[in-house]
Each structure stands twice: as structure tokens, then as C-alpha cells.
Write a structure and sequence with these properties.
Layout: H1 6-36, H2 42-49, H3 53-58, H4 60-71, H5 86-126, H6 131-178
Length: 184
Amino acid sequence: MTAPEPSVQAMAEGRRADTGRRRQRVQAALAAAAKEGTETSVTAIARRAGVDRTFLYRHRDLLGQVHAQAAEPPTIPGGRGPMVSRASLQADLLAADARSAHLAVQVRSLEARLGEVLGEQVWREVGIGGPDDTEQLKGKITTLEQQVVDLELKLQDQGDELKAARTTNRELMAQLNRDPTRRH
């Protein structure tokens, strides 16, 4: 194997130096994004470092660093702790929605109870009795309706007995009318 020509060797060294400078800019862009809490994505880091996105895709270690930093919650500028992420906001929104649904059910329950209490108060103020009186009256109505049904059945039985007695009476009268010897 022969040594490469000096011009080819110079170009290769220049390319390696350029790649090293680009890598340093990407590392600096990642550090600045983490410190400032700005967006961490392939496009944002490539733009900030002044490199093409394909540079990051050709250097898998840098691409892995970008993805790892993007997965971490961003920090508040100045390194004072994690900033609110989109996922945490969505989780908070879902929790607030669940609390809202629970409170809506509780409000409907309280409104129904308030309606009952106000209804009882109106019954008493008007003087027609309260709901307790209504329940007693409904019970009495049911008892009276049952008595009516029982009396109707009893009346029907007596009507049947009367009908049978009339039929028997007619038959006896018919027999008496046919047999003249039985008359006194």
C-alpha cells in the first residue's frame, strides 16, 4: 500500500477537522438548548449548530444525544428546574377534566337534594301538608282501592248467588204450575 498523495491527505485532514468543528458546534447547541430550556429536536439543534440535519443522521452518537435530550423534560432557563412539558400539561388537563366531571355529578346531586328540600318547605308553607302526608295519603288510596276490588268481587259473588236463586225459584215455580195436584 502506497502513501496517499499529499493533496489527498490534506483534504482528508481538512474534512476531519471540519467534522470535528461541526461536532463541537452540535455539542454546544445541545448544551445551550438544555441550559435555556428551548426546543430539542433534530431540526432545532441542526439549525442552531449551523449544520445540515443529514450531518446528525450520519453521526449516530450525536443523533442519540439529541433524542435523549428531547426525551428529558426541559428545564427553566437558568437551570432552576424542569419546565412544564407538553406531556405534563396533557396529564394535568386530563386530571382537571376528570375532576370537572366528578364535580358536575356532585353538583347535579346537590341540585336534586336542594329541590327536594325546597319542595318540602313549599308544601309546609302552603299548608297542604308535606311529602310525608302525601305518602300516607297514597298508602290510604292503595288500601281503599284494594277494598273496592274486594267489594266488587263480593258483589259479583252475591250477584251470581242471586242469579242462581232466581233460576232455582223459576224452576220450582214451573214445577208447581205443571202439577195441579200439589196445590192445596
